[in-house]
Amino acid sequence: MAESAAAPVEAGRETRRTRRAPGAPGRREGQTAELGKRAVELSRFYAGKIETVPKVPVRSLRDFALWYTPGVAEVSRTIQADPDQSFELTGRWNTIAIVTDGSRVLGLGDIGPEAALPVMEGKALLFKWIGGVDAVPLPIHTRSPDEIIETVERLAPAFGGINLEDIASPKCFGILEQLQRRLPIPVWHDDQLGTAAATIAGLLNALELTHRSVRECRTVLLGAGAANLTTARLLLALGHDPHRLSLVDHRGILHAERADLDELELHNPWKFRFALQTNGGGRTGDLGDALDDADVLLAASTPNPNTIRAEHLRRMHRDPIVFALANPDPEIWPDDARAAGAAVVATGRSDFPNQVNNSLIFPAIFRGILDARARGIPDEVVIAAARELARHAHDRGLTPTHLLPTMEEIEVFPHVAAAAADAAVAQGLARHRLSHDEYLERARARMGRSARLVRALLRSRLTPAMPRPGSVRHGGSE
Fold first, then answer.
1. Where exactly are the structural domains of the chain?
2. Per-residue confidence of the chain (478 residues) as pLDDT tens digits?
3. Fewer C-beta neighbours within 10 Å, C or N terminus of the chain?
4. E strand or H helix that includes residue 297
5. Is-catalytic flag, 68?
6. Is 123 noted as a catalytic residue in this protein?
7. What is the pTM of this model?
């Protein structure tokens, strides 16, 4: 699933020898190498992507009598008497932590917390630039789920929300569930919820285009990791018949008689539950067997264009919907999927139509949740955000190549934020209960201020202009 707001998207190594993807992939691979080199150069020049900037006037040292000691003592006493005042009297209300252990970072795998930091900084930049949300990257040096949970619990008083990021499956499920249960602030895992929400939004519009409904279609999910297990859960919440839903992992179709069922129950109870709950009729076999007469294929698996083959899609129902979301390469190239009969195709890449991009979701949903001062982000809130994202594209006209808004359609973000806030109110989770229009205007104002701040820093040259390629000799930290 793509997370970048930038137009260029990484292209991985060539995986198909007999045929390359459209658009000169050899050139794209060269561009990717150049982008990587340039990213290192700019990271050295700027010494990171984000910094802390004061939001109060400091005219002289005398002002610190208000902002620090002795005046700040009364602020602390006020919060001591009522800890909820920490949301009113500090920046906690608009600040989240981006927590990772570096165990599953983009397509890089288990690279550790230090190497994950630039990715978390990029995420924080998106949160601020799009959502007006102050986000603090927090890579932590442990692989233990219990230690991750304990660390986040201890840090929670500083934050209005928690974004878990790039934590390997299946431990990510248990970490999210435990933190959602224990903390009085919203906790979100973007690899699960952001990806699933964007997928659901695109799927709702694809179903309408092909004259299908969630309740009646037959859906196959290829890949049973963080994104697809959550997508499956949201589909069931939308009324999808569990007997018409099948999941396929590297061992084949999930079903109640699989030989590894005891192992799943012990090590991956989330996948185990789907093995018991889905796949009515007890289908067995591989992807091709699962796809017989299916309407929808949602793939979030191996980044290899040979993962899904044309003969697989020909076993599906007429005019199927195919989402091939692996990055950097989709499980099947879009033109191959269309040639095999797919009516609607989506990928995780911006160089093909219908990019399913969780950057359309996470900055906006946090904007709305923070504005509502919500205590959590249940599935009802996630679905409301997905429906609003789908509606925005629907109102601008659906076509087989226009299922979702693009990142350039910035007007969508305040609407998704307001929809999330409304849903938090409906679920009884909002500490700040406002009208839809009030949430919408707050989101517009706060998102707009952030964009203006970024532009003002650039115009004033407080943010230096990008240096010419190859001209950086010393970093900003030197």
1. 59-191, 193-347, 358-460
2. 444 333 322 233 333 333 444 444 555 566 678 888 999 999 999 999 999 999 999 999 999 999 999 999 999 999 999 999 999 999 999 999 999 999 999 878 899 999 999 999 999 999 999 999 999 999 999 999 999 999 999 999 999 999 999 999 999 999 999 999 999 999 999 999 999 999 999 999 999 999 999 999 999 999 999 999 999 999 999 999 999 999 999 999 999 999 999 999 999 999 999 999 999 989 999 999 999 999 999 999 988 999 999 999 999 999 999 999 998 899 999 999 999 999 999 999 988 999 999 999 999 999 999 999 999 999 999 999 999 999 999 999 999 999 999 999 999 999 999 999 999 999 999 999 999 999 999 999 999 999 999 999 999 999 999 999 988 877 665 5
3. C
4. strand 296-299
5. yes
6. yes
7. 0.91
Taking alpha carbons only, the member of 350, 280, 355 closest to residue 323 is 355
Under CATH, to which class is 59-191 assigned?
alpha beta
The CA-atom distances, in angstroms, between 416 and each of 96, 385, 410, 423 are: 19, 5, 11, 11
* Catalytic pick among 123, 128, 171, 271: 123
**Residue pair 436/386 in contact by the 8 Å Cβ criterion:** no
The CATH number that domain 193-347 falls under is 3.40.50.720
Contact 131, 417 (CB under 8 A): yes
* Superfamily of segment(s) 358-460: NAD(P)-binding Rossmann-like Domain (3.40.50.720)
216: left (phi over 0), alpha (psi -120 to 50) or beta: alpha
Residue of 435, 396, 401 lying closest to 418 (CA atoms): 435
Of 252, 302, 300, whose CA–CA distance to 279 is shortest? 252
Out of 37, 55, 68, 171, pick the active-site residue. 68
Side chain identity, residue 360 = L
Tokens (6 digits) for 377: 């982000």
Is 193-347's fold the same as 358-460's?
yes
Provide the 8-state DSSP code for 91: G
